[in-house]
Amino acid sequence: MGLSIGQVAERTGLSVHALRFYEREGLLADPVRRESNGRRVYSEDDVDWLAMCIKFRSSGMPLDTIRRYTELVRQGSGNELDRLDLLRSHQDYITAQLEDLQESLRVITHKVSIYEEHVAAGTASCLWTDASSTEGPARASSA
Amino acid sequence: MGLSIGQVAERTGLSVHALRFYEREGLLADPVRRESNGRRVYSEDDVDWLAMCIKFRSSGMPLDTIRRYTELVRQGSGNELDRLDLLRSHQDYITAQLEDLQESLRVITHKVSIYEEHVAAGTASCLWTDASSTEGPARASSA
DNA sequence: TTAAAAGCTAGAGTGTTGTCTAGGTCAAGT
DNA sequence: ACTTGACCTAGACAACACTCTAGCTTTTAA
Questions:
Q1: Where in the numbering of this chain does the HTH merR-type domain appear (chains A, B) (predicted)?
Q2: Residue B116: inside a domain
Q3: Chain A 108-137, CB below 8 Å of chain B: which residues?
């Protein structure tokens, strides 16, 4: 039931350094329990919480915001609207990221397909000399 | 036809600092032309190239990789397969990001909906006291 | 019993991506 | 003449999120 920092590092993929760092930064709902010798003992709940933090992080939430969220949870009930606000705005942020990424993917896929055509053509004979229509400044190498 | 650094900053959304920085970092296909007085003169092609760099950046390509790509383009024809490689691997990277983000969105949307239920219930009467089933360590506040 | 492995704290160091400052030039307007 | 504003270079500084080091204690395995 109680996990050492090393075990938690293994399970979460965070380094032990990062785990201590996150704790110092106030990202854990409660300051991790300690054994008599001072060593950290993590519960499954701690690991779940960390997993959530990792999801937040990987979707671009800054540590600062995770800390604010953590504080709200730590304060207990009464601020659910604030938590909801924070979550919704992160939701919006993710949605915006998704749209940007999809657009980026569209653009790069287009570039890839142009290069593929060129390369396919070039496999037969090396007749083309620049990436015109894919690279801006390389275009026609002129005014 | 020739744009000042300030105009390019306006058009691209990059700061003039960032524009000079990108140039120093070798992210521009050719070192920007200068007026007699040393001031930069950007062409539309430069702006197009910058727009592409911005797309690369915003989809998580490090400056380092953009520089490598730029170098390939600068070298001229003959390395199209290398460019294609680089582009394809970034394409894969974006795809992976999209999947991660979608998963994150799923998780956070679930949390949001749980909070919404709680808050809706609480609007009538403040009967619930914690975020159990949404927050790990806050759960039942016990062993 | 002793050596390796794992943990601890405090704090320094790092990589990335810019941003800002200092000190100066140049052109235009008043 | 003088101020304002855009531009220049070189280089210092900064935010973010870790990562690593030093110096120490404790646990575990041989």
A1: 1-72
A2: no
A3: 108-109, 111-112, 115-116, 118-119, 122, 126, 128-131, 135-137
